[in-house]
TrEMBL record:
GO terms for molecular function: oxidoreductase activity. This is MsnO8 family LLM class oxidoreductase. To bacterial alkanal monooxygenase alpha and beta chains. Residues 19-300 form the Luciferase-like domain.
């Protein structure tokens, strides 16, 4: 089965460099991805992490559409629970008017930051009025399509301008509930395999996606690194670890270090917490090794497109990796 390749970037800041340098690298990567034939280039949203410069993907999208010509640019994804669906619809309608047929709107439901950053983002939200993610997504969908019900309290509000071609819509998630919601709303589903690489979770989510009547095949996000030799790839990825933090209220989150875990717990006001050091789920090896794994995932789960992230620790090797993966892959023929 043929599949496309796309990229996700978090704009990681390497030791000793500034956010300016990290963002310039993001621009260069997007331009390289276009030259190499990648289908999409997405920007993540993270808050309060000193090592990541991507806090406002919609601003980076606007900048990158002016620095590229053909590749689709989008969010991977906007964290909808922090924002007004109306404002998100306006923003992406404007972007889609600036670059018709090139804008992707990816939506995620994670907090995307440390607890104090989340609190700051939601400072005007009254917890008593909090709405479910499903309700927010439905409202966003209505504003994007101009289909608010006549009895809706917001009926008559229009998210302008109306672009000639709307942003393509994606829901990012790693659970059957997210997969089902995407299918029911007619959004494309992106399984976040870099967060949950358990084959049983993948199978359960994609089965739920199909059973819910999905009209388009799913996308699959994952972490991958290709190098000239398997030994080089192993040397780059073997030392990588993630810290699984579990708070006393049962909340769990993956973080980059024990220090980040302690700070998250402090900001969350946890009386106690535990951590577990884990190896991240990363496809690595030569380009042929990685493509072989992608071929297998595509064949097993019907994946039409992979959205590839490179571990932040391997940022310096990322351009070489995406060049090797582009290679002569038949998936890039489209």
């Amino acid at each position: 089965m043929a599949y496309s390749l796309s990229l996700l970037d978090k704009s990681p800041i390497l030791d000793g460099e500034s956010a300016v340098e990290a963002l310039q690298r993001t621009i260069a990567l997007a331009q390289a991805a276009e030259r190499l034939g990648y289908r999409r280039f997405w920007l993540a949203e993270h808050h309060g992490f000193p090592g990541l410069a991507s806090s406002a993907p919609e601003i980076l999208v606007a900048h990158l559409i002016a620095r590229t010509r053909r590749i689709r640019i989008g969010s991977g994804g906007v964290l909808l629970q922090h924002y007004s669906p109306y404002k998100v619809a306006e923003t992406f309608n404007l972007l889609a008017a600036l670059a018709p047929d090139r804008i992707d709107l990816g939506i995620g439901k994670a907090p995307g930051g440390l607890p104090l950053s989340t609190r700051a983002l939601r400072v005007q939200h009254d917890p008593k009025d909090a709405r479910s993610f499903e309700a927010l997504l439905a409202e966003l969908d209505s504003f994007l399509s101009g289909s608010l019900a006549t009895d809706d309290p917001l009926a008559g509000a229009q998210a302008l301008p109306k672009p000639p071609a709307p942003a393509e819509r994606f829901l990012l998630g790693a659970s059957p509930d997210s997969a089902k919601l995407a299918a029911e709303r007619g959004w494309r589903f992106v399984f976040a395999g870099q967060l949950n690489g358990d084959p049983k979770a993948i199978e359960a989510s994609l089965d739920a996606h199909a059973r819910a009547g999905a009209r388009q095949p799913p996308l699959f996000g994952l972490a991958a690194l290709a190098a000239a030799t398997a030994e080089e790839a192993r040397a780059l990825t073997e030392p990588l670890r993630v810290v699984r933090l579990t708070l006393d209220n049962g909340q769990s989150v993956n973080l980059g270090s024990e220090e980040q875990a302690a700070e998250f717990a402090r900001q969350a006001g946890a009386a106690s917490y535990t951590t577990e050091i884990r190896r991240p789920s990363i496809l690595s090896g030569t380009a042929e090794d990685v493509r072989r794994e992608l071929d297998a995932l595509s064949a097993r789960f019907g994946i039409a497109e992979f959205v590839i992230d490179t571990p932040a620790a391997a940022t310096a090797q990322r351009l070489a990796s995406i060049t090797l993966l582009a290679g002569d892959a038949p998936a890039l023929a489209a």
